[in-house]
Structure formats: structure tokens, C-alpha cells
UniProtKB/TrEMBL annotation:
Protein name, UniProt field: Amino acid-binding ACT domain-containing protein
Residue ranges annotated for the A9CJY8-like N-terminal domain, each copy included: 13-57
InterPro entries for this protein: A9CJY8-like_N (IPR049447), ACT-like_dom_sf (IPR045865), CASTOR_ACT_dom (IPR027795), CASTOR_mTORC1 (IPR051719), UCP008459 (IPR016540)
The CASTOR ACT domain, residue ranges: 60-120
Length: 129
């Protein structure tokens, strides 16, 4: 039996990656789900949240799906994102990655999801719905 490398969980909902100006406050609509990510830099306020929560006038890339690497992952582990991004890059699949203290999240466009999951499974990753 071939041993799996890591287990990933597919989120069922669609998400958006939004760009707001750096001076804007964190909007309430961005916090309406179990998963959201907010990053503020000197250049921008970047928000990942449920697509259905995003007002139409917000600058946003929509139609992302999330694959969560089941963790927690130890900080000493090396090359997890590199391995996954290489597999997907070889298939022409763009990603948006988010890392937290416990794990990593890989966002892929919904149109690429089947190809991404297939490619990861072929490389011994387990993907759960």
C-alpha cells in the first residue's frame, strides 16, 4: 500500500480575494463565516472571505475554492507549500496560499478544482470533501 503524504480537506463554498485601500476599516461583511483571512500592509487591506458576503462594488477576484492541509503542522516541516505549488504549477494551475499558525490553505480557482484534486491525488495527497 502506498502511504499518503498529507491529507487535505476541500471546503464546499466559494471564496473571494478582495483588495481594499490600506486606510479602510475591516468591514463587517468580511467576518460572516467560519473562515476569513485579513492582511493589512502599508499598501493594502487584503481580505479572503465567503464570495456571497462580498458587496458587488468591492474590487475582488471571485470563484476560489479552498483546500485545507489537515494539521496542525509543525513549524519544522519543510517544503509543504513548495511541493503542492510545484505539482499544481506543472498543470498550469495558479494558487493563492494562506498560512496560519497551525496549517496552510491553498486556494484554486473553481474552474481548475477537478484538475488540481486529481493532480494532488496522483502525487499521494488525500483530498476529502
Amino acid at each position: 500500500m502506498i502511504e499518503k503524504i498529507l491529507t487535505m480537506k476541500l471546503f464546499k463554498d466559494k471564496y473571494g480575494v478582495c483588495r481594499l485601500t490600506r486606510n479602510e476599516s475591516i468591514p463587517k461583511w468580511a467576518q460572516d463565516s467560519d473562515f476569513f483571512s485579513i492582511t493589512k500592509t502599508s499598501d493594502e487591506l487584503s481580505i479572503v472571505c465567503l464570495e456571497d458576503s462580498i458587496p458587488s462594488e468591492i474590487k475582488c477576484e471571485r470563484d476560489w475554492r479552498i483546500l485545507k492541509i489537515e494539521g496542525p503542522l509543525d513549524f519544522s516541516l519543510i517544503g509543504i507549500l513548495a511541493s503542492i505549488s510545484t505539482i499544481l504549477a506543472q498543470k498550469g494551475i495558479s494558487i493563492f496560499a494562506i498560512s496560519t499558525y497551525d496549517t496552510d490553505y491553498i486556494l484554486v480557482k473553481n474552474k481548475d478544482l477537478d484538475n488540481a484534486v486529481e493532480s494532488l491525488i496522483k502525487e499521494r495527497y488525500e483530498v476529502l470533501d
